[in-house]
């Protein structure tokens, strides 16, 4: 077996430093970063989850800070029982293994799951104003840096496209439009990856919320787009619009604080939702391609068609994006199937 120094570090920390009589230790999950998670069974039958966050790659201190802010907002995040920042270790509450996505795929009531998820998100936005001021801003530099992943990793590396000067200019103009739209929205606490794989279905205070360490203060519709235009599961547009309207109603029913972030009309709020969703999905196309080519994680290739479809939907639905929509239809859509086949063949060789 290949030696695993970090796993030995985890064992030593639990048994020696924390003096926990761990009966069993097994992998719990991994994610798209360098973090790993292990489930530890204690003698009384209870379980904990150990986060292994190698300090040369991951910012455990940042995770702990955001966790504390979210707990102050009554969001159900994994409680931190112990941590050692210097070695990148944390002992967390075990929220189980049932993601919202797993529950949906198992036939659970989608209406109830989304009602809980949207309730939790609205509560975060309404209770989290003070906490959001302690977060870095989701500013122009971040928004642009994220979208630049599209030409670098999706267009060039994955699709093998060489963009013409006119196409580069079109992307620049589209990015500037989306940045302006994003910066025009009211600012709230943004989880930044609020979707079905990061919401855990638990017996009490469901959902539990994970993977929040990159939170920023940013556009009100960002997390809503993350969950309702989920890269791992999709719904008919009419149902999505109904959920958007219901979420805005949640905000408005909270009084002045909610009205301040709910927009002047449903039409304006829906446009915020669409445009920030487009910004997110341009970024995600680049991230999924990078996860395959740089990090050796081809599993995300299967989610590229759905993500690109979200891009197509918004581009086709807004006249400001007509030229960009033509670029997507003529250059990106036809190239994706063959690109995915090439990538999968390379991963299997």
Write a structural description.
The chain contains 15 helices and nine strands. With 349 residues, the protein is α+β, with helices and mostly antiparallel strands. It is globular, with a radius of gyration of 21 Å. The mean pLDDT is 96.
- Average pLDDT, all residues: 96
Please report the distance between the alpha carbons of the first and last residues.
Answer: 23 Å
The tally of helices reads 15
Question: Roughly how many Å is the radius of gyration?
Answer: 21 Å
Helicity, as a percent range: 40-55%
Report strand order across the widest sheet.
1-2-3-5-4
Major sheet attributes: 5 strands, antiparallel
Question: Unreliable stretches, pLDDT < 50, 5 or more residues?
Answer: none
Strand residue percentage: 5-15%
* Overall body shape: globular
The secondary-structure element order is HEEEHEEHHHHHHEEEEHHHHHHH
By DSSP, the count of extended strands is 9
Supply the helix-strand structural class.
alpha+beta
């Amino acid at each position: 077996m290949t030696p695993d120094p970090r796993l030995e570090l985890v064992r030593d920390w639990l048994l020696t430093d924390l003096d926990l009589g761990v009966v069993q230790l097994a992998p719990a999950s991994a994610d798209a970063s360098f973090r790993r998670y292990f489930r530890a069974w204690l003698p009384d039958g209870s379980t904990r989850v150990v986060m292994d966050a190698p300090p040369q790659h991951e910012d455990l201190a940042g995770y702990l800070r955001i966790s504390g802010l979210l707990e102050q907002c009554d969001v159900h995040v994994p409680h931190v029982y112990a941590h050692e920042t210097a070695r990148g270790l944390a002992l967390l509450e075990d929220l189980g293994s049932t993601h919202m996505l797993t529950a949906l795929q198992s036939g659970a009531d989608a209406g109830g799951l989304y009602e809980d998820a949207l309730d939790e998100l609205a509560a975060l936005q309404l209770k989290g104003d003070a906490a959001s001021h302690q977060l870095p801003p989701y500013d122009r530099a971040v928004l642009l840096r994220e979208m630049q992943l599209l030409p670098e990793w999706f267009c060039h590396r994955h699709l093998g496209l060489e963009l013409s000067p006119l196409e580069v200019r079109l992307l620049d103009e589209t990015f500037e439009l989306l940045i302006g739209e994003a910066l025009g929205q009211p600012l709230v606490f943004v989880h930044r990856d609020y979707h079905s794989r990061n919401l855990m279905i638990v017996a009490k205070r469901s959902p539990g919320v994970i993977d929040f360490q990159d939170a920023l203060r940013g556009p009100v519709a960002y997390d809503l787009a993350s969950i309702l235009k989920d890269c791992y599961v999709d719904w008919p547009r009419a149902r999505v619009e109904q959920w958007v309207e219901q979420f805005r109603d949640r905000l408005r029913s909270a009084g002045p604080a909610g009205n301040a972030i709910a927009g002047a009309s449903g039409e304006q709020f829906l446009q915020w939702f669409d445009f920030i969703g487009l910004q997110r999905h341009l970024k995600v196309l680049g991230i999924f391609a990078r996860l395959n080519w740089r990090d050796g994680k081809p599993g995300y290739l299967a989610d590229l068609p759905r993500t690109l479809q979200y891009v197509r939907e918004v581009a086709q639905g807004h006249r400001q994006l007509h030229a960009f929509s033509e670029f997507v239809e003529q250059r990106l859509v036809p190239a994706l199937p063959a690109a995915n086949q090439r990538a999968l063949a390379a991963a299997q060789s």
